[in-house]
Amino acid sequence: MKPVWIKHAAQLATIRGENAPRKRQDMSELGIIEDGSVWMEDGVIKAVGQTEELEQIFGARSKEAEVVDATGRLVTPGLVDPHTHVVFGGSREREFEMRLEGATYMDIMNAGGGIHATTRMTREATEDELVEQASRRLDSFLTHGVTTVEGKSGYGLDLVTELKQLRAMKRLNELHPVDLVPTFMAAHAVPQEYKGNEGEYIDSIINDMLPAVAEEKLAVFNDVFCEVGVFTPEQSERILEAGKRHGFIPKIHADEIESYGGAELAAKVGAISAEHLLKASTEGIQKMAEAGVIACLLPATALFLREEAAKGRQMVDEGVAVAISTDCNPGSSPTTSMPLVMNLACISMRLTPAEALVAATMNAACAIRMEDRVGSLDVGKQGDVVLWNVANYQELQYLFGVNHVGQVWKKGKRVVG
Ligand code: NIG
Ligand code: FE
Question: Where are the alpha helices (DSSP H) in 61-215?
């Protein structure tokens, strides 16, 4: 593979520095280099600096490299999506219509639709079909500048199908350029066959599923939908604590539809991140700040469900490290566009353009423990880079709803453009 030399970027937004969640004013530090340059070789970043500096080091090797002239354009790290449900069977466009006609997300789920509908379709799909369909979605992520994606199980809700989903993710991670980081989430809903018997389902998660997933090393994280009518905070805690005993790092879908103590629970169990948080209490936000829980905010989901977005501005100001994500799933956010999510982070949560970029790179990487490999343009990191057809980072967030991706490299190899 040829080395890649990107030179003369109007702005190289490196986000380099400590590989740790950025908070408060550190969320505005983009480490911008004007007339910036990156040299990638053997899949990793070998040098980052001004074009003049790299000229001195690599000028003599120019002929052997793929040289990219980024004059007048912005270059950033590959975007990271730290929360998706990208592996699933079927589609739910009819529910979109039903919601526009007045049904709520929970009405539909309680009537056997929603997560239950996708569970039926995922149980019916073969592993190969899941791999094939999710692979197309990962292609779409790449075309939107996203080079690392977290993915959750949770459309199986039985041992066989949860394993099928996670094995599909393992295969996708091997065969697709996007890095796919797996999360076990059998606690996404109580399956219909256990209705009225939640305790038994939770026992089967703890006694059967968690050990099997651990045995095959199929997940890094363990997530729970802690919500009124789904799993209570007490049940969620039991599931997350059991996961910890197998080495799974807790995450929580928290306070999405009602304020339910999810943010507080995230702090209590030491979750790496709490997701959604549309209805998180001020006390919960403060507890997250104290405990160092990353807020993973999903403004496209709020928009798609026609709900008010999470209090992103308040969270940043309170010292919570904020990450953002598509939540890509067939029900509440069927999008693969992280650029749109960055736009919405500004428009509906009042993050600044710089904060939105940090939330979609370094902080997103930290939310899935990938910060040592991705999330910034720094020597030794993977060659995950996006060249955007805009002049600066403000323009990227301002010209909204449009895909500005010019070229994308994953591990030093051009995969888009
Ligand atoms: O993060 N809120 C729960 N889970 C998903 C939606 C899953 C679905 O509707 O299929 C979410 O929004
Ligand atoms: Fe989700």
Answer: 93-100, 105-110, 115-124, 127-143, 159-175, 198-204, 210-215
Q: Is the pTM of this model over 0.90?
A: yes
360: nearest Cα among 340, 381, 379: 340
Q: Which ligand has the shortest distance to the CA of 304?
A: 1
Which atom of ligand 1 lies nearest, measured to the CA of 115? 10
> Does 251 contact ligand 1 (Cβ within 6 A)?
no
Task: Name residue, tokens 């979605």.
Answer: 137
Contact yes or no for 305/332 (Cβ under 8 A): yes
Tell me whether strands 74-77 and 221-226 are parallel, antiparallel or unpaired: unpaired
Strand 11-13 relative to strand 74-77, pairing: parallel
Alpha carbon nearest to ligand 1 atom 12, residue? 332
CA atoms within 13 A on the CB side of 3: 18
Evaluate: CB of 329 within 6 angstroms of ligand 1. Answer: yes
Residue 373 CA to residue 78 CA, distance in Å, equals 11
- 251: part of which helix (H) or strand (E)? strand 249-254
Summarize pLDDT for 106-119 with one digit per residue, the tens.
Answer: 999 999 999 999 99
Tell me the ligand closest to 300's alpha carbon: 1
> In this structure, what token pair is assigned to residue 89?
């069977």
Residues 6+ apart with CB under 8 A from 194: 200, 201
